[in-house]
Amino acid sequence: MLRAKAWKDNSFAWLLLLPSLVFLILFTFYPIGKTVVLSFQQADLAIRNPVFTGLDNYRSLSEDSVFWKVMGNNLWFALGTIPTSIALALAMAVFANKALRGKGFVRTAFFYPNVIPMIAIANVWLFIYTPQYGLLSRALQAVEMGHLNWLGNPALVMWAMIVMIVWREAGYFMIFYLAGLQNVSRELYEAADMDGARPWLVFRKITFPLLMPTTLFVMIVALTNSFKLVDHLFVMTKGGPDNASSLLLYYIYEQAFAYWDLGKASTLTVVMIAVLLAISAVQFFWMDRKIHY
Q1: How confident is the model at residue 100 (pLDDT cuts 50, 70, 90)?
Q2: Mind telling me which residue stretches traverse the membrane in this protein (predicted)?
Q3: Between 266 and 188, whose confidence is greater?
Q4: Tell me: the pLDDT tens digits for 112-168?
Q5: Interatomic CA distance for residues 268 and 67, integer angstroms
Q6: 291 falls in which pLDDT band (50, 70, 90)?
Q7: Could you tell me the sign of the dihedral formed by the alpha carbons of 134, 137, 143, 144, in that order?
Q8: pLDDT of residue 226
Q9: Shortest CA distance to 167 belongs to which of 91, 234, 113, 219?
Q10: What three-state secondary structure class fits 53?
Q11: Any residues with CB less than 8 A from the CB of 103 and at least 6 apart, and which?
């Protein structure tokens, strides 16, 4: 009798989960499986049907100089955007959380860049970075510093992309930190104030440790974003000059939809997923020891 009741309850639960499970299989598990299979096949315009080639795609990728350059670009892009945007988001959240006039306006102003579509942001920053006539060039000329070709110089283009993404992402991460600050007990701050603790000591000993669960979540989201934010490349650089601003996801797009090499694009996708999983696992297990829940 008890077994029949448990089976009935479990069946009802699975029926409730069935619609989500169907969508998960169709749009997540099946594409992942298909991508893994294609990564072991030659699937390009040279042949009519995909042909199994084993690890040839992976061997070819290891000898692809453009791939290694793109991976290096993505590494620097992640190192430039993740710590900076998280630190700025935390500072903005602490500032916006204080009891001051216009708190709602301040929070809206900080978050507003994330509301704007990425294509629109790219067009705005394209105007800012335009040599001679752009806003930044005009400002440099006003102080007699000449002008720089931010998007045409291989040494500067990645830094230009990093600044733009940090400007956009910091407000988004600030929302998570604001939510985390609401859960920090005011009694802790009152006790620290009674003991005469300085603001920096309060932040280092109370605020930051108690925000570590939020920081872990934000770091994983920021890592994912550093590999998937490529909309701006279509408008601003097309990955140039000389692949200096190309990122892994944009390189995958080029292989799949510009050159129609689905085998290589699938191999690149598997590599990207593996890298994201590895870095996320390291982040999670390393930071989990430092988190106070």
Answers
A1: low
A2: 12-32, 75-97, 109-128, 208-227, 265-286
A3: 266
A4: 898 899 999 999 999 999 888 888 888 877 777 777 888 999 999 999 999 999 999
A5: 9
A6: low
A7: negative
A8: 92
A9: 113
A10: coil
A11: 96
Q: In sequence order, what DSSP letters do the residues of 66-128 get, joined into one string?
A: HHHHHHHHHHHHHHHHHHHHHHHHHHHHHHHHS--TTHHHHHHHHHHHHHS-HHHHHHHHHHH
Which of 176, 164, 281, 172 shows the shortest CA–CA distance to 230? 164
Q: Helix (H, G, I), strand (E, B), or coil: what is residue 196? A: coil
Q: How far apart are CA 227 and CA 248, in angstroms?
A: 7
In angstroms, rounded to a whole number, what is the distance separating the alpha carbons of residues 82 and 221? Answer: 9
* 3-state DSSP assignment of residue 54: coil
Give me the architecture of the 64-290 domain, per CATH: Orthogonal Bundle (1.10)
Backbone φ and ψ for 212, nearest 5 degrees, come out as -65, -40
Per-residue DSSP letters for 125-192? HHHHH-TTTSHHHHHHHHTT-----TTT-TTTHHHHHHHHHHHHHHHHHHHHHHHHHHTS-HHHHHHH
Tokens (6 digits) for 201: 């000591």
The Cα–Cα gap between 288 and 293 comes to 10
The pLDDT, as a whole number, for residue 41 is 93
The C-alpha atoms of residue 230 and residue 101 are separated, in whole angstroms, by: 37
Dist CA 143 CA 163 (whole Å)? 21
Kindly give, in sequence order, each residue whose CB lies less than 8 Å from that of residue 17, ignoring residues fewer than 6 positions away. Answer: none
pLDDT in tens, 46-94: 888 889 998 999 999 999 999 999 999 999 999 999 999 999 999 999 8
AA letter at 278: A
